[in-house]
User: Fold these one by one.
Assistant:
Number 1:
Amino acid sequence: MSVLFYIQKSPLLSPDVLLLFCRVTTVLGFMDVCMTNVVSEFIEFVVNQKLCQKQWQEATDQCAELTTRCDQVQHENEALQTKLKHARSVHWLSVMSRACLDHLTK
């Protein structure tokens, strides 16, 4: 038999004490349900937090990798721009020297 049965049959307890006991029992039962939900929600939160941390780390690593690649491409572009400038200069000198030769030979 439950504790509540014995308390109800006890001649020493007044109806106010019995009512208080019932309310406390109800509150404790509600707290037990709430704590169970809180614990399960907290565990879910922790799992989600770990997934977020993993995704954040992957995004940070990818960002660092892309930054490095961007720097490499910029240096490569600068080197190619220098080569293009030199090639244009050489081509211009070649065109001008041919023009001078053509002018002198006429």
Note: The helical segments are 3-9, 15-105.
Number 2:
Amino acid sequence: MRLPSPLILSYEGRWRYACGVIPTPSARFFALAVASSFVVGGCYGLAEKSFDPGDHRDVLQSILARGIVATEPIAGQTACDDHDLVGNSLYLTARMPEETEPRDVYVHMYREKYWDRSAAEVDKCEAVYAAANPDSEITRLDIPTYRIFGADWSDELTEELTKALDEASHAGRD
């Protein structure tokens, strides 16, 4: 026995569902859009975001906006010989306007998802820098998504760098 088709041909030559529902193109598009939004929302709605930090330009812009005098910025310059750090590092010298001697600042940038595992490689690089500067006081700031260090920073420079990197960490893209 053959079952009847759910579609029948109407007297106007259009296909209609036998149950009386007429699937117009706009109704099908609406149903597809609603279903897609649930699928996309289900995949990404509860997921933890992993954003990029502000890039080199954002970091420099935030530093300069805080009144810090920054000179000699070099992207990719590290304090150690670790080629894996080159892609996410920035070197510059910095000082507050009333200070006369610029200080080294090494900034290492990471995506949020790599933040936890980035500490060990920056620790090694910081140790090499500290060994090369034995009479200096090394300061380290860990501000997600940046790890930054240098020697002999004043309290004011440390405070302003902290504020600048905190600001830059929110300048990236989601």
Note: DSSP finds four helices and seven strands in the chain.
Number 3:
Amino acid sequence: MNYLSHFVFNHDVCGRPAEPYFALGCVLPDLWLRYSRVHRIRWPALRAAAPTEARDVQLRAGLLNHVEVDQRFHALPLFHDWQRRVKGAVGRDGQPPALVDFVAHAALELALDHRLLHADPALVARFYCLLETCDIDDVAARVGRLGRVRTDGLAEVIRAFFARRFLRHYRTTAGLADVIRIILRLAHIPSLPDTLIVAILHSAVRHADPAAVWHALRAE
């Protein structure tokens, strides 16, 4: 899932307390590619950590929550069905199947956030307002210690994420298409023709249903 879907599932659907360090910890795995493709969180070290200080506990829980919920979401039969439907609706236009699979996967995650924003226009403000109560330099230092990873420069990436507030652009297909292009560029993956990206996004928005995801995850 993407930023807003994690946020809504954790705090609105599951009723977790609105703890800022938890919420930002849950954001960081999706934001990490903007920071580095070289420096990676050492997940076994993070899982083995047993912090006692409240901010460390929240941050570690948010990071691990993101991974656990993503694993469950990606295994859902409905998610695989949506991927098949999206790819079946648009074809491949001569593009590599793995690339189309990747974009369809990303488009469905973005489409869930898009649907959530249309249902709750104040969601982006609520999301950022909670995260901005964190001490960003403190977060970067704590992630470095907990995940045994270099984090010099991570604070600047988080500040830019807050300043740009690019999640507001998820409201439009054009905004989602820009995000797809950015993801492909950051991952050093060749892009698709714009017409195919837009077609995939339109199909993803038709199929993605946040309520169905919440029901499936809570039914496990």
Note: The chain is about 75% helix and 0% strand.
Number 4:
Amino acid sequence: MVQFWLTFWTYLLWSLEFLYVPPLAYGTLLLGLSFIASVIRQRPFSKPIWKTNYSIVLLQFLFFPATLAVAVLGRVDWQQVPFPGPNAWGLRAEYVFALGSLIVGGYCVWRMKGLRWFALSLAMLQLWLLAAANLIAAMSLTGNWL
């Protein structure tokens, strides 16, 4: 169990490092600025437009740790002889989480009338974070590290 949390923590740090690597940091900066500007401009939490079912947008944050957990549990040891090949079930789970996050994000943008800029900014920021986790998970599940 300790090994799981140590590996999970390592993958988490690597995923977050993705966000500030020089070429990718520009995307992170633009998405962050869009999110901050949408919060300042639309004030989503203080308007009467906000409904309790809009909180489903926070469900997207659960896909990030779930993807990393699958990466840790389905890790392929690239030094093992003979090489076992990629973890097919782990890769399928990673694809399902990515598709689920995309569907939840699209649903939230569609449902949040009057706050769509905020919803789109938050969904794009969450998908950007999930892309970092998917990169680490894909390397872990296939055994092909960059």
Note: Residues 116-142 form the longest helix (27 residues).
